[in-house]
Amino acid sequence: MMASILELLDVSRLVTQVVELIPSLIVSLIFVLFFWLTFRVTSVPLRGLLERAGLHSAIVHMLVDNIYRLALLSFGALMALDQIGINVRAALAGLGVAGLAVGFAAQDSLANIFAGLVIFIDKPFLGDEWVSVAGQYGQVNQITLRSTRIRTLNNTYVVIPNKTIIDEVLVNHSKHGAVRVDVPIGIAYKEHIPAAREVLLAAARQLPRILTSPAPALAVTGMGASSVDMEVRVWISDASQEERVRA
Fold first, then answer.
1. In the sheet that 157-161 helps form, which strands lie side by side, from edge to edge?
2. Residue 117 lies in a domain
3. Which of 8, 23, 162, 185 could form a disulfide with 115 if both were Cys (CB 3.0 to 4.6 A apart)?
């Protein structure tokens, strides 16, 4: 009998605590709803403002849909937790320690993300341009915050971490339109250089991918052990043909 009475008292106390907590819960929900609505109302004009500022769509997506949304909703959640009596400072301290641990574990990924931001802001290349980087030559297929994907002449799909790209020397073959291709050639010392020059330039002019202006040219680059080293220099309008012309 006594146990039943104690159980009833505990239930009664629990109901009383729940009833007392209802106003705080309502206020907490109002806080969360307010910050969620704030994000919904302000995200569209903020996204438009950043796009008009010339930022890449991937950066805009990260700033608005990830960082801005997370900041607003996190602040709203903290205020909501404070309303129902949870020690927010202790929770923030715990999150800080956890954040440090996650940061150390994901430092390579974070480095690639920051490198991706540098690429989007600096714009050393754009999609579909032809580049040489990290020992790879090909057309830029996709640029993400973590990596850059390149399609090579062999039609292979190469994924290069963005940190590697900003740490390496990068050559953009498409940035300024027409590209000059230098084709090394050696001729024997016994050959007549002016005659060889005319033959080589005539052959270069007949190639279908070669521009007539600037006109093909030939230069002597050195005197080898058994040959005169020369370069046939031609211009092409499409960087994708560079390796084919050189071959």
1. 157-161, 147-152, 136-143, 130-133, 171-172
2. no
3. 162
Can you give the pLDDT at residue 75?
80
Question: Nearest 5°: CA angle at 91, between 90 and 96?
Answer: 100
Q: CB–CB of 171/132 below 8 Å?
A: yes
Are 27 and 88 within one domain? yes
Residue 189, classed as helix, strand or coil, is coil
Question: For the chain (length 247 residues), average pLDDT per consecutive 10?
Answer: 50 62 76 87 88 76 81 81 69 58 64 86 87 92 88 92 92 89 88 87 86 89 87 89 78
**Structural contact between residues 223 and 162, judged by C-beta atoms closer than 8 angstroms:** no
Q: Is 194 helix (H, G, I), strand (E, B) or coil?
A: helix
Question: What's the predicted TM-score (pTM) here?
Answer: 0.61
Q: Directed axis angle between helix 107-122 and helix 88-105, to 10°?
A: 80
28: closest CA among 80, 63, 94, 72?
Answer: 80
